[in-house]
Write a structure and sequence with these properties.
With 463 residues, this protein is α/β, with parallel strands linked by helices. The protein has helices at 5-18, 34-48, 53-68, 70-84, 89-102, 140-153, 167-183, 199-207, 220-227, 251-263, 280-292, 301-311, 326-332, 353-356, 372-383, 397-407, and strands at residues 25-27, 30-31, 112-116, 119-127, 130-134, 157-161, 191-194, 213-217, 232-236, 242-245, 275-279, 295-297, 312-313, 316-317, 343-347, 363-369, 389-393, 411-414, 434-435, 441-442, 449-457. It has 16 helices and 21 strands.
């Protein structure tokens, strides 16, 4: 639904009419309507303004501790798979654990300063206020943990709008977070959500006058909508990450990295390898080594046609197959899966739907290019200008440089699996809100702040 001036006026009128009523809570952080959730978060934010940075650190630690309890990690992973029908339990346990441990906290809030004859000027990173955060079905708990830590460390309150398919698990997690924050004496309702998430409620959240910032993690539709809201908006959109392999690469390592990255949580992350473009001279060897690491090579044209019909419709992946395992997809084709299969691969042409569609499942097309320059040029075509993620296996610095410059992706992983780019086995912090469309990149605490220039004239320069 497009946000228009008329829709905004209608929503504001509705909110104002409801403003005289007392917020109706049905649990810690869980509310029956958007206005109540936002009103409670606004009240919490105002109280939170008076808290110290040290206390914010305690709030962040409470969320980390809650999310790292082994029982909670397993529950989030198992219920994430059960309720959304996507991904796998071991990888979701890892993702939730890393979201808790590696999301930056208050240490990112570093003050900048100048001093001179005219006094002292500081640049302070201050909160926006109430953030409306729209979270995806692909990483429901990971995104809530990641965003809650970063947004609260920055001094904000947050109202989540989860995907309806992850509703029950999101309610559980938001309630648990509020219980943990209550135990350390934090203001009530720093994290809230509506009990019944819906498109209507999401639109109401985006239009609400008491929401200061919007953060959307999802497809191009929701990103376009938040950018039309008139508010400060951070959009984390879709990707279709290509991986290029040239003749200088360590082929066996590249093959293992590609299969590991492609199958991570059944290819749900938008950062995961979605298509391989390999230089002709090493393509056969690469495919051979991919098979050694759990790939099943499909060559029968009839099987490939049936697979395309099974998983793609009208240029989009069929929702019922997103995040499913390779074994489940084979069974859907009526094929008994051989032991140890992690990924389905096939050699196709550049413009094949398997290459041009972000499938988000362990179906990985391989395209043969005559040389590295052609492979890089084709990678740019496959990435569709999303500026999300690219991967390259090469030891040629010039080729790595050319791909990095032409692709212009937010994440560029060199000689590793794609998940290294989000902090899983690569240097740097963890992130599940990757803002390519709006340019913030891998979001963290400082992303959710505004810069304030504070000037003291004629004082505190002691040089």
């Amino acid at each position: 639904m497009e946000i228009t001036a008329e829709l905004i006026a209608q929503t504001v009128a509705k909110v104002m009419a409801a403003g005289a009523t007392k917020p109706t809570a049905s649990g810690m952080g869980i509310f029956e309507d958007v206005d109540s959730a936002v009103t409670a978060a606004r009240k919490a934010y105002k109280e939170y303004l008076g808290c110290s940075l040290k206390f914010r650190g305690e709030v962040v630690q409470a969320i980390r501790d809650l999310a790292c309890v082994e029982e909670n990690l397993r529950y989030m992973a198992e219920q994430g798979v059960a309720q959304t029908g996507m991904g796998n339990v071991p990888d979701k346990i890892l993702k939730n654990r890393l979201a808790a441990l590696l999301t930056p906290g208050v240490e990112e809030l570093v003050t900048g300063a100048w001093s001179g004859d005219d006094g002292l000027t500081t640049i302070e990173l201050s909160p926006f206020g109430v953030i409306g955060a729209i979270t995806p079905t692909t990483n429901p708990t990971e995104t809530i943990i990641n965003n809650s830590i970063g947004m609260l460390a920055a001094g904000n309150a947050v109202v989540f709008s989860p995907h309806p398919r992850a509703k029950d698990l999101s309610i559980w997690l938001v309630t648990k977070i509020n219980e943990a924050l209550d135990a350390v004496g934090a203001p009530a309702n720093l994290v809230t959500m509506v009990r019944e998430p819906s498109i209507e409620h999401t639109n109401e959240l985006m239009c609400h006058p008491e929401v200061n910032m919007l953060v959307a993690t999802g497809g191009p539709g929701i990103v376009k909508t938040v950018l039309s809201s008139g508010k400060k908006a951070i959009g984390a959109g879709a990707g279709n990450p290509p991986v290029v392999v040239d003749e200088t690469a360590n082929i066996e390592k590249a093959a293992k990295d590609i299969i590991d990255g492609c199958t991570f949580d059944n290819n749900l992350p938008c950062t995961s390898e979605k298509e391989v473009i390999a230089v002709d001279s090493i393509c056969d060897l690469l495919i051979f080594n991919m098979q050694k690491h759990g790939a099943l090579l499909l060559t029968d044209p009839e099987v490939l046609d049936r697979l395309q019909e099974l998983v793609i419709k009208d240029g989009h992946p069929r929702t019922e197959w997103v995040g499913k395992s390779a074994n489940a997809i084979l069974e859907g084709l009526g094929i008994t899966p051989p032991p140890g299969i992690r990924c389905l691969i096939m050699e196709v042409e550049l413009m094949h739907p398997f290459v041009q569609t972000e499938l988000m499942m362990p179906v990985l097309p391989v395209v043969r290019a005559k040389n590295v320059d052609e492979a890089i040029d084709w990678a740019v075509i496959c990435e569709h200008g999303n500026r999300h993620t690219g991967i390259m296996h090469s030891t040629n610095v010039n080729s790595l440089t050319r791909m990095g410059k032409l692709l212009q992706t937010t994440i560029f992983v060199k000689n590793g699996p794609s998940f290294a780019g989000i902090g899983v086995g690569g240097e740097g912090y963890i992130c599940f809100t990757i803002a390519g469309p709006t340019g913030e990149g891998l979001t963290s605490t400082s992303t959710f702040t505004r810069k304030r220039r504070c000037v003291l004239v004629g004082g505190l320069n002691v040089r």
